[in-house]
């Protein structure tokens, strides 16, 4: 009797939103009222193991319905796909999705459509890692360099990173990987926290949370800046007084400035010894970032959370525009494209300090940095993962921070799965939370 292979049977989507703007959590100079949201996708199968693939794209409220619709548009490429083949080669799915000529027109490989591709591709990786009974970081770190190279799309980046380059980097990365894996399991991966620094917080709250961060073992915090210079000077003075001289304070303008303004503003804050200035101008302005970097030293320049694809990252690196490259787990086209970006950073010798926070970004990106440490860059020097202490309770396997370090996930998968109760409560607009909220405050509901 011939066995029937398991197939993807459904692509289930959810518009999940949280009312974070009410406490000003996540507030910055460009995003004063973000409601952290996830366009959430579940790949269901008819496999006997009952496993599912979970993924999402992070957004901030209005427009999450557009992001969900973009994911729904990809469903015909998924339903009926062979599960074994998909998990053996997630790269084939990534290339298939980005190659849809009519949907590609909406990018290409950027914006809402590309983020939808990332959500679906990440869900496929979650399923593959679960079926291998490994957390994603270990699934990647245990893979052969040749297979990892096969997962990368080198189109548009082969002028600086060839498959041969990638193979050499990944082969070299295996040297000492067992010892690094043990160190990771024992100590974890360094983190920094943005929790004290949201723009809407009072000085009292900033001080209290900054001191707590130091007590919790963090050696770096981050403040949002860019709305008002005198206000930023006061807040930086407050933060520096709270943490003392030995703690790094990064600052983040969230794309607020023109290039000359970015230089002037950063220099005005230099007396407080900012470690880096993040997103000083448009994320698409490669030469602008290079100009800022040349003029604000010794303050370093970081960017990446809104960089749309591996091609823009390539140019930022070619132009010497950044000191720190910040990957985002859901902005680009999923794990495959982030592998390409990690390889580009390794080729140029630029440290990767991922963007996190939001809904589930901490849960996802920890896996990518841990793989990078164990099997590619081989170091955590000058590398930290952002941590924001919001909404982790909604995940089945939330991040664990100990003494300022991410602890390595042990559960199989990509740590992307939300509790069923969260999907029921926070589905927008008719989840139980939002329904009750409208009944209580119909004039102010989001």
From TrEMBL:
InterPro entries: Enolase-like_C_sf, Enolase-like_N, Enolase_C-like, L-fuconate_dehydratase, Mandel_Rmase/mucon_lact_enz_CS, Mandelate_racemase_C, Mandelate_racemase_N_dom, RHMD-like
Superkingdom assignment: Bacteria
Pfam families referenced in this protein's UniProt entry, alphabetically: MR_MLE_C (PF13378), MR_MLE_N (PF02746)
GO BP, sorted A to Z: amino acid catabolic process; carbohydrate catabolic process
Known catalytic reactions: L-fuconate = 2-dehydro-3-deoxy-L-fuconate + H2O
Residue span(s) of domain Mandelate racemase/muconate lactonizing enzyme C-terminal: 203-299
GO molecular function list: L-fuconate dehydratase activity; magnesium ion binding
EC number, as in UniProt: 4.2.1.68
Signal sequence coordinates: none
Cofactor(s), by name: Mg(2+)
Keyword annotations: Lyase, Magnesium, Metal-binding
Gene3D superfamilies documented for this protein: Enolase-like C-terminal domain, Enolase-like, N-terminal domain
Record PANTHER family: ENOLASE SUPERFAMILY, MANDELATE RACEMASE (PTHR13794), MITOCHONDRIAL ENOLASE SUPERFAMILY MEMBER 1 (PTHR13794:SF58)
Name of the protein in question: L-fuconate dehydratase
Biological classification of the source: Bacteria, Bacillati, Actinomycetota, Actinomycetes, Kitasatosporales
């Amino acid at each position: 009797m011939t066995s029937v292979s398991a197939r993807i049977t459904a692509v289930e989507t959810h518009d999940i939103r949280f009312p974070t703007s009410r406490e000003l959590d996540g507030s910055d100079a460009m995003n004063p009222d973000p409601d952290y949201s996830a366009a959430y996708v579940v790949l269901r199968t008819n496999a006997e193991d009952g496993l599912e693939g979970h993924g999402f794209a992070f957004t901030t409220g209005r427009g999450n319905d557009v992001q969900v619709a973009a994911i729904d548009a990809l469903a015909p490429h998924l339903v009926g796909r062979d599960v074994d083949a998909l998990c053996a080669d997630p790269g084939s799915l990534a290339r298939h999705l980005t190659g849809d000529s009519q949907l590609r027109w909406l990018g290409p490989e950027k914006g809402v459509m590309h983020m939808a591709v990332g959500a679906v591709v990440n869900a496929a990786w979650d399923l593959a890692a679960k079926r291998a009974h490994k957390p994603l970081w270990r699934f990647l770190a245990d893979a052969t360099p040749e297979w990892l190279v096969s997962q990368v799309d080198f189109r548009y980046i082969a002028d600086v990173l060839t498959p041969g380059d990638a193979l050499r980097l990944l082969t070299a990365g295996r040297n000492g990987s067992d010892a690094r894996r043990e160190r990771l399991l024992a100590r974890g991966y360094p983190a920094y926290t943005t929790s004290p620094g949201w723009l809407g917080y009072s000085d009292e709250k900033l001080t209290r949370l900054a001191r707590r961060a130091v007590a919790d073992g963090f050696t770096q915090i981050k403040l949002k800046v860019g709305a008002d210079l005198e206000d930023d000077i006061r807040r930086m003075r407050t933060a520096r007084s709270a943490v003392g001289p030995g703690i790094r304070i990064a600052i983040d303008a969230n794309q607020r400035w023109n290039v000359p303004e970015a230089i002037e503003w950063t220099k005005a804050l230099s007396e407080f010894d900012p470690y880096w200035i993040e997103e000083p101008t448009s994320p698409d302005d490669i030469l602008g970032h290079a100009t800022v970097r040349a003029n604000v030293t010794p303050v370093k320049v970081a960017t990446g959370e809104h960089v749309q694809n591996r091609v823009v990252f390539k140019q930022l690196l070619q132009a010497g525009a950044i000191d720190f490259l910040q990957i985002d787990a859901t902005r680009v086209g999923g794990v495959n494209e982030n592998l390409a970006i990690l390889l580009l950073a390794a080729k140029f010798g630029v440290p990767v300090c991922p963007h996190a926070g939001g809904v589930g970004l901490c849960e996802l990106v920890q896996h990518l940095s841990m793989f990078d440490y164990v099997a590619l860059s081989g170091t955590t020097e000058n590398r930290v993962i952002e941590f924001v202490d919001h909404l982790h309770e909604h995940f089945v396997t939330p991040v664990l921070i100990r003494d300022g370090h991410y602890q390595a996930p042990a559960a199989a998968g990509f740590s992307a799965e939300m509790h069923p109760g969260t999907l029921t409560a926070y589905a927008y607009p008719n989840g139980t939370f939002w329904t009750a909220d409208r009944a209580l405050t119909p004039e102010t509901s989001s």
